[in-house]
Amino acid sequence: MVDEFIAKEFAAGRIDRSLFVDTKASILLHAHCQQKAVASSAVQLKCFDTVNYSVKEIPSGCCGMAGSFGYEKEHFELSNQVGELILFPR
Question: Which of 8, 60, 78, 79 is 20 to 30 A off residue 66, Cα-Cα?
């Protein structure tokens, strides 16, 4: 995952933290469903913290966009209904 690569680059000192925000910024994170299923969002959370973001993970499950499902016209309404459960209101 790209966030794992970025975390390793930070740890190795190849990315300079000064390139990012100076003041602490707050953001919400929706970790992708697939990522949560096969790994975790811990590395993403650490990456954001490293570059001076206060990050809170949205306690969401599926966003309604899994694979090609959310891009197919016949799934548009259902995909939006799933997103409206938790993710979109946040």
Answer: 8
In this structure, are residues 46 and 8 in contact, taking their beta carbons and an 8 Å threshold? no
pLDDT tens for each residue of the chain, 90 residues long: 778 888 889 889 998 888 887 888 898 988 887 778 888 888 888 888 888 888 899 988 777 777 667 778 888 888 888 888 888 888
d(CA 47, CA 53): 9
pTM of the model: 0.68
**Cα end-to-end span (Å), the chain:** 25
Domain range summary for the chain, segments of one domain joined by +? 1-14+23-57, 62-90
Neighbours of 8 (CB within 10 A): 12
